[in-house]
Amino acid sequence: MSSDTKSQDECLSEPEPPRARAAELERALADREQALAALRESEKRFELAIRGTSDGLWEWTVATGNVWWSPGLRELIGYSDDDLPATYESWESLLHPDDRETVLEAVNPHIEKGQTYRIEYRLRTKTDGYRWFQARGAVATDESGKPVRTAGSIRDINEQKMAEEALRESEEKYRSLFESSRDSCFILSVSEEDGARLVDCNESALPLFGCTERHQILGKSPEEFSPLRQPDGKPSAEKARQVTMAAMAGNPQLFEWEHHRLDGTPFFVEVTMGRIDFKGQALIQGVARDITERKRAEEEKLALQRQLLHAQKLESLGVLAGGIAHDFNNMLMAILGNAGLALDKLSPMSPARGNLEEIEKASKRAAELATQMLAYSGKGRFVVEPIDAGELVEEMAHLLEVSISKKTMLKYNLAQSLPTFDGDATQIRQVVMNFVINASEAIGDKSGGIALSTGAIDCDRAYLDDVNEVLRASLDESLREGVYTYLEVADTGCGMDAETIEKVFDPFFTTKFAGRGLGMSAVLGIVRGHKGAIKIDSEVGKGTTFKVLFPATEPAENGFAVQRKAEGEGKDWRGSGTVLIADDEETVRAVSKQMLERMGFGVLTAQDGREALKVLGEHAGEIVCVLLDLTMPHMDGEEAFREMRRLHPGIVVILCSGYNEQDATERFAGKGLAGFIQKPYRSDGLRAKLREVLGS
């Protein structure tokens, strides 16, 4: 080896100079300080993170069993180091008994196999009892994969769990109410593409949709299994779509629909629909209530209201007709009376006699119209007698046969030995004539038949309640049960629909091109006045049957209500003494005075009840009778009569009125009224009444 090479090797093996080794040491120290600074910074960040989080942190060293709990964890459970040591056993002792097994089944695999876990359980806190927590854990292993340390966090989720529990209970309650409701509950999902689809319903809704099982309808459109119908009966799928889309849009809907059950019977429902948001999905919740009974009750109520309104209309018109007839009769009293007096004075050859006779005829026709108006008002019973319905019809046979079309055959079915009923024969004939003529007109120019029948029937409450509602509603009291005599007129004519039947008793109502008179309205008043009933059966195109029932005769409670027809009038009878006329109509006083004077009476007059009492007091010894008007100013006839009877108990008083006898005298029953005369009266009628009251 050369000397140069030796010198080089020797140089390489020599120790480093002290300066180089010092520099290396400084660098190492600097690196260590930098690492320590980074560690301190990391620890600060970790400490800051621990203080800043609301979670509690923990760490467990498997080999030593040491456990570390963060201050946050201590704060969550409320235990200090002195209260509860940081050990695995301490943590396990805080577990809720019901959660222990579940928690350990999750934690043990975590420790043994290094699995992460996430679990919820209850821990017993120091101040609040058991609370819900959510724990997460992760495992650190050595080079061989053996767990050496596990760490994790714990978070208080008690409020969240309580909210979830409340929601669960609410959903259970909702489901319970949903399922147990007697109303039909359903839920729809709605989209522009698929429209409305049923996603849920309760048992009560199945009949609504015409099904027996939910699976038959879930996912289907409501129109597929129960076509919606509007209350007028017309299908309306478009209307259903509109109200459904309006309820997705957040506008609550309330409407009525008609549905059909499995057997096809219709029923009405009231539907309420509104939007609900469930787990991010907009749904429609609906409730359908069967309102068939309510609709029926409403219809019955409306029908009753219509009946009552109609009855009130008839009653109002009756009051009007009665008032007009009363005033009309007072005016006719003057016309008929003066015409009669003039005729008595005229020579049979006088050219004016014909004019007066025409005036008298026209006045009589006007009086007949007033009679019809009183009949319509239900106050038309004038002369009452026992009536045999069969005999009455037989007496009318010829008149009826000439009053109907020649193409119409009139058939009689008249029962024998019928119980009689109290009534005015003239008015009952008017009833029969109206029915027969109407029947003939209903048949028209075609061939047809009219059957006129009489009989008797024992009517119970159910039968009487089935009679014509308009008449029954217009009566002051319900019809009594018992035996009724009936007159029935049946035809094969055109018949009537329900609307026509409802109007048939309206004044001046007619189905003919031209009609006049009170007609069936007068019939209604007559039957009402006789406490009877009318039963109507009619079918369009097949004919009509009118059955009129009159209560069989009973003992009368009011002597004036059953007065019989007077016998001969005694045309040559004359009286004596003085008659007092008390009437507020001057024309009535004047014409009555002339009539009485021609009969041989002296006459005094008074224009109201007060004046009549004064005149009676001044001439009590010479007055043999008082003609007393019912309606007068200052003191009416009823009050004046009461004072007359109190001051002069034996005075003879005849009541005069434009109203009928029954209505005018019912307040005088049993009080000593001598008699009644209906205005307008003529001389012969007044003579007959005075002869009846004063005797021969």
Q: Could you name the CATH class of the largest domain?
A: Alpha Beta
Query: Beta-strand level of the residues, as a percent range?
Result: 15-25%
Give the low-pLDDT segments. Answer: 513-517, 555-569
Mean pLDDT: 78
Q: Characterize the main sheet.
A: 5 strands, antiparallel
Query: How many individual helices?
Result: 22
Give the CA-CA distance, first to last residue.
202 Å
Report the CATH superfamily of the largest domain: Histidine kinase-like ATPase, C-terminal domain
Helicity, as a percent range: 40-55%
CATH architectural name of the largest domain? 2-Layer Sandwich
Oligomer: single chain
Describe this structure in words.
With 696 residues, the protein is of the alpha+beta class. The chain has six domains: 25-51; 55-152, 2-Layer Sandwich (Beta-Lactamase), CATH 3.30.450.20; 181-290, PAS domain (Beta-Lactamase, 2-Layer Sandwich); 296-373, Orthogonal Bundle (Helix Hairpins), CATH 1.10.287; 384-559, Heat Shock Protein 90, CATH 3.30.565; 570-694, Rossmann fold (3-Layer(aba) Sandwich), CATH 3.40.50. Helix content is 44%, strand content 24%. Strands 2-1-5-4-3 form a five-stranded antiparallel beta sheet, sandwiched between helices. Helix 10 (292-345) crosses helix 18, helix 12 (389-402) packs across helix 13 (425-443) and helix 19 (609-618) packs parallel to helix 20. Mean pLDDT is 78; it is low at 513-517 and 555-569.
Describe the secondary-structure layout.
Blueprint lengths: L2 H10 L5 H35 L3 E6 L5 E3 L1 H7 L10 H6 L3 H17 L3 E9 L3 E13 L5 E10 L1 H23 L3 E8 L3 E7 L3 H4 L13 H4 L11 H12 L4 E8 L5 E13 L2 E10 L1 H54 L7 H24 L8 E3 L1 H14 L5 E7 L6 E3 L1 H19 L4 E12 L1 H4 L4 H6 L7 E10 L6 H6 L16 H10 L3 E7 L3 E9 L26 E5 L3 H13 L3 E5 L2 H10 L4 E7 L7 H11 L5 E5 L3 H5 L9 E4 L4 H12 L2
Parallel strand pairs: 12-14, 18-19, 18-20, 20-21, 21-22
Antiparallel strand pairs: 1-2, 1-5, 3-4, 4-5, 6-7, 6-10, 8-9, 9-10, 11-13, 14-15, 15-17, 16-17
Helix pairs in contact: 10-11, 10-18, 11-17, 12-13, 13-17, 19-20
